[in-house]
Every structure is written in structure tokens, then in C-alpha cells.
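pasting Metallo-beta-lactamase domain-containing protein for the record, 300 residues
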Amino acid sequence: MSFAHNSMADDLSYDLKAQKVGDGVYVFIGSTDHFNRENGGNIVNTGFLIGETGVVVIDTGPSLKYGNEMRAAIGAITPKPVRHVIITHHHPDHFLGNLAFDDAQIWAMDETIQAIDREGEGLLENMYRMVGDWMIDTTLVKPGHSINQSHMDLSGRKIQFMPLQGHTKGDLAVFDEKSGVLFSGDLAFHNRTPTTPHADIVQWMHALEQLEKHPYNVVVPGHGPVERDGRSFKQTLDYLIWLRKTLYQAAENGLEMTEVMRLDIPQRFQSLSVARAEFVRSVAYLWPAIVEETLPRLYD
Ligand SMILES: [Zn+2]
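structre below
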């Protein structure tokens, strides 16, 4: 995979703007669109915490360029060094900026590290195809540190880890005790239709119940605006319940996959970004297993 370095690439910028969401806690809020050549893969929320002795980064974005711009934006706010990076899960928009932080300790759940081992190269190649020049010089950097503990003190910030699953096989929610900011990773989407390429819907629903019970002041969802009343949890759960019910119902009614993709989407989900496109993708991902699961019942 080689993309010539050219002047076009030098003009590209994510124009990252840090938004303060708590005491020493900042986020970069991405677009709620699909990956494309205008947003360069910046469809994701990332963030950072300023501790006594250093900075903790949460997710590194879709590319080296994003990671570098993130690092520069952090440097404009604090002179403290980035010492730790936490990766919430293995999706490409969340960790392909790791190379920009390869002098820091990069932490993730074992499940995430294994998924990067299995799928990382493919995910990286796919990003080059989708957003092109924005990916220049981006290479795979695997997290070198595995998270097995529920609490850690990182640069003087007390962090709580919630190892969950459902959006993928390893979804880490990160809670900063001082500010009460809860980073949900992609377990929560806000005003943006959830994606399901690696989803286990039932496990995801359980994870959302856990998150809803956890105290917080601010929720930073994986995609979409930050919120303070848990509405991203409720919205994601509501969508997953509808999606699952709709697919099982369709299987029982003997629909074809193309018919399922054309089913009505309720009004309350039509206002979510990329509602139809993401529903169609979810049908493609989830339908085969549901058909397999429901078929034997039909012939019992
Ligand atoms: Zn994801």
C-alpha cells in the first residue's frame, strides 16, 4: 500500500478544536457522517485528561495526521507530556492515530489487542481506500499494555475502567473520578445511528444497562455530542431493541434480505445521522445469523 506524498496532503487539516467538558478534561468532537474524503475519517470523539505529571489521551483518531494534530492541540493547552494513551476498542477511527503517541504507554483491553492483531492490517487498508491522502504515513501501532485492573492512577488522575462488550468483543468505558466524565467509547452513540459490524446486540444492551447505573456528570459518547443526562445510553438502547425486534420479526415473516433493508424506520430514529445507510449495513451484518437461528424453529 503506497500513496505518493503530494502537496494536496499537506493542505489537509482536521481543524481539531478542544472542547472543555470537566476540570482538566477536554474532547474533540468529530462529524456524525460516514468516513469520506471531506472529513478524512474524523467521525469520532477523542479526548484527554490533564494530570499532575502528564496527559492521558483517550483514543487517537483515524490516522497519523489526526494523532499529530491532536497532539499539537493538546500542546496548545498544556506543556505537560502525553504519558498514557487508552484505546476504547479496535475500530479504525479510534486507534489509527497511535503512531503519533508511540513514545507514550498505550493501553487497551486484551480483547482489543487481539482484535487489532487479527483485523488491524485489513482495517488500515480499508481506511486508505476510503479517505486516501489523509492516511499518509499511518501505520499500525498496537497497544503494548494490557488493562486488567479496574482502577489506575495515571499521571495523578484516578481512572476507573469498565471492561464491557457488545459493540465489539472488547469495549472499554473510562471514568475519570475527579471530573465525573464518563467516556463510553462506541457503547453509546448520540444523534448518530449505531454501527454493528462486530456487534452482539444482547451483550451491548447489558453493557448499556451497566453504564446507565454508573454515576457521572458528563457522558462522552463514541460519536455525537457530549451530554449530561444519559440520553445517549437511552437512545442507543432504544435503537438496539428496535433493530433486534425488527430483524427477528422480519425473519419470522419470511422476508428476503432486500425487503428487510427497505423496511420503515420509525420517526424517532430518522433524525439520527445516516439512519437508512446504517440500518442497511446492520441488516447485511446481522441478518444471516438471525435467519440461521430462526430457520430450525420454522421446521421443528
Ligand atoms: Zn466502533
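The mean pLDDT is 95.
The radius of gyration is 19 Å.
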